[in-house]
Amino acid sequence: MTIPSLYFKLIDTFPMACFLINSELEVLHINPSGLDMFGMSFTEINTKLVSFYFPQVASCIQQEGVPVKSTFADGNGNEQDVKLQYSSIDGNIALGMLYVTEQSHSKQSIIEQQKFNEIILDNIPADIAVFDSNHNYLYINPNGVRDPDTRKWMIGKNDFDYCEYKKLDQSIAQNRRAIFNKVVQTREQVEWIDEYHKDGKDIYVMRRFYPVFLDDELYYVIGYGVDVSELKRIQNIVIYNEKINKLILESASDAIIKFDSESNITFWNPKAELFFGWNSEEVLGKKVFDVILTKETGNTYCKHIKDYIEGNQSFVLDEIVEISGIYKNKKEFPIEISILPLKEPNGKISFCTFIRDITSRKQKELQVTVQNKMLLNKNIELEQFTYITSHDLQEPLLTLMSFSDLLLEDYSDGLDDEAKLYIEFINKSAIRMRALVTGLMEYARIGKRDGIRSIDCNKMIEDVSNDLSVIIRDTGTEIAVDNLPHIRGYETYIRLLFQNLISNAIKFKKKEINCKIKISCKENTNEWKFSIEDNGIGIADKYVNQVFIIFKRLHNESLYKGHGIGLAHCKKIVDIHNGEISVKSTLGVGSTFTFTISKNIQ
Amino acid sequence: MKQLDTILLIDDDFATNYLHKKIISKSGIDTPIEVANDGEEGINKLLSLNKSINNENATILVFLDLNMPVMDGWGFLKQFAIIRSTVLCNVDLYVLSSSINPDDKARATSNSLVIDYYPKPLSIATLKNIRSNYL
After folding, report:
1. PAS domain: from which residue to which, for each copy (chain A) (predicted)?
2. pLDDT given at position B82
3. Strand, helix or coil at A219?
4. What is the pLDDT of residues A42-76, one digit of tens each?
5. Which of A34, A210, A319, A354 has a CB 3.0–4.6 Å from the CB of A189, allowing a cystine?
6. How many contacts does A have with B, using Cβ atoms within 8 A?
7. What is the mean predicted confidence (pLDDT) over A222-244?
8. Would you say the ipTM is above 0.90?
9. Residue A275 pLDDT grade (very low, low, confident, very high; cuts 50, 70, 90)
């Protein structure tokens, strides 16, 4: 029987596998999709009847037009489930078309797929388990249970069996069962974190039960577990840091206020409450500059913030600026403000501002200004005093001295001895007065500084000794000097200081023995401490505190000459070097003068 | 050598002026002496002396005190600097002061109009020394 080629052409265009068969169940033609399904050539397929490949073909022909389940065996021994439909051609039962309307994957490919899945499951760095609807294990991957024997043993068992086997607390199994039941009941996945303590480490595992339903029936539950210890550890650090940051923000001595790019307050610490009088609830969400600044300054700052957001950084926000803040009761007070722009992870800009109440500092600054002014006035007074002593008081004395000289010179012949003695007294008093006034002027001038220089104290003592060489030689004085430091100070005055102290020691020596002077120095953190020790007559206890007062003299002029100026000068010189001078003395044994010179003289 | 015409003492203290006149005469200097009691009077005296002498070879020797009422020595120096060009005579100026403050001496000698600074009172030796500069 010949078959019109039209049929061949027709079935070749069908997208599903299609076979032309006759009543003897011989295969007459197969379309390209059909050949694909077999993986063989037509001639090979043609050697067997169609019933060989599709065992249920007879029942399919009987139920023409209805899809019928059948198995399909290809030439390579693979089997798969298909659905077949038969249709006769032109009512001729001897000739018909067999369609494969549904084709499942081959068993082989299912097995391959399974193998592939298992490889993935075995190697995935997570615990994977599959449970049946009764919470018994169907599958566990090696990450879940490492030991292969245990793993094999676990199949068909549950967590209670495992706990018993491992002699573990049943509570873990109970907890798991409760979660499993919840999953079954709610039909939704549940996620939780297990916490273990192993080898002194905290281990956190994030677990999940995921139910799989098939035709509305619970098919199985997939258990899933990932070690999140590192994440958790980082999270704990973050939580801890947040806690600490919060503590810092709340206990900081500055007001700390955060606000968003719209200037709405998002954070307001306790110091902000204290400085501005508003509590956190009252100001959160409000415009920051309306709350803390005066209207004018607030507007300026609003503009700075706007400029910053728009990228015009004309104003440095995080520089500390002094402006006026405004308290709840509208009272202004001085503040120091700096604003730190913050880039949030979402790319938005927010700001953190630090504010310090500088009211008390401002008051102190004002005080210092007033005191400086007073000091300036005192200095002017002192200059006036210097002028008076150095000039006004001199003139009458000079006149006294000059005319008493003239009197003696020009009228000597007309004066008797007593008259001459009187004039002598006038003259001597004038000379003494002049010395006192000179001393006073010099004392007042000590405040007047020349430059601070580095001074080699060894060299200075040598120079002073040279200046005093005559008196040192005449009195047989011995001066022992330790190795002295280089110090910084006013050279002229330091020299005068040493000179006064050395010549004082010589002046107040005991008559019967030679004068011995010992000069030494000790270094302290912020100062040099000099000592000048003598073996002189000493000072009675009751006078020790008076020796540095100007014009104070402890001895009669006839015994020890002097004007009571030297030690007053010494005290003032030490004063301008930010130091202290004192004396320790034993009457009849000797005195030690000690003075300090600061290392930090401005 | 310049010719010494007049000595002008500018000092507010009567006793000092008296003393200086005495010392000048003791030094054997017989140049006429004029006295002014403050800086302003000193300027006026200087101008009238200049007018009466009217000789560019003649010298007026000025001893100027610093501390004076009305116009002090510094004021005199300032004013003298202004009128100097109108003065035909030679003016040799010494500052005399009873001040013992070294700052005063430094300030006075730094002034270009001042030849030198002497503490009061003038000594015979100083005067003889100054006098030797003139005819």
Report:
1. 241-312
2. 93
3. strand
4. 888 888 888 888 888 888 888 888 888 888 877 66
5. A210
6. 42
7. 89
8. no
9. very high
Q: Which residues of A touch B (CB under 8 A)?
A: 386-387, 390-392, 394-395, 398-399, 402-403, 406, 437-438, 441, 445
- Bridge-based pairing state of the strands A332-343 and A349-357: antiparallel
Q: Tell me the two tokens of residue A405.
A: 């000289």
What's the pLDDT at A90?
A: 67
pLDDT for A384 equals 79
User: First-to-last CA distance in chain A?
Assistant: 129
Which CATH number fits the domain A252-357, given the four candidates 3.40.50.2300, 3.30.450.20, 3.30.465.10, 3.20.20.80?
A: 3.30.450.20
Lowest mean pLDDT among A327-331, A393-397, B8-12, B15-19: A393-397
Best residue in A389, A394, A438, A492 for a mutation probing chain B (most B CBs within 10 Å): A394
CB of B75 less than 8 A from some CB of A: no
Q: How far apart are CA A574 and CA A565, in angstroms?
A: 14
Is pLDDT of A102 > 80?
Answer: no
Which residue of A384, A386, A390, A437 is the best one to mutate when testing the B interface, meaning the one whose CB has the most B CBs within 10 A? A390
Q: Mean pLDDT of all residues in chain B?
A: 90
For domain B3-97+112-120, the CATH architecture is 3-Layer(aba) Sandwich (3.40)
Of A391, A406, A441, which is closest to B67 when you measure between CB atoms? A391
Q: Over the range A19-58, which residues count as b (16 or more CB within 10 Å of their CB) and which as e?
A: bbbbeebebbbbbebbeebbeeeeeebeeeebeebbebbe
Closest partner residue to B19 (CB to CB) among A390, A402, A445 is: A402
Interface list for B 11-50 with A (CB within 8 A): 13, 15-16, 19, 22
Q: What pLDDT, in 10s, does the model give residues A295-307?
A: 888 998 988 888 8
A450 contacts in chain B (CB < 8 Å): none
DSSP labels, A109-148: HHHHHHHHHHHHHHHSSSEEEEE-TTS-EEEE-TTT---H
Q: Which of A398, A437, A438 sits opposite B120 (nearest CB)?
A: A398
Q: Which residue of A has its CA nearest to B22?
A: A406
In A307-443 the beta strands, taken as DSSP E runs, fall at 321-326, 332-343, 349-357
Q: A495-519 in b/e burial notation, b at 16+ Cβ within 10 A?
A: bbbbbbbbbbbbbbbeeeeebbbbb
Per-residue tokens: A542: 């009751």
Whether A493 and A446 have beta carbons less than 8 Å apart is answered as yes
| Fold topology of A5-108 | Beta-Lactamase (3.30.450)
The average pLDDT across A340-369 equals 90
Q: What is the pTM of this model?
A: 0.47
CATH fourth-level superfamily of A124-232: PAS domain (3.30.450.20)
Q: Does pLDDT of B76 surpass 90?
A: yes
State the fold for domain A452-598.
Heat Shock Protein 90 (3.30.565)
| C-alpha span between B44 and A294 (Å, rounded) | 66
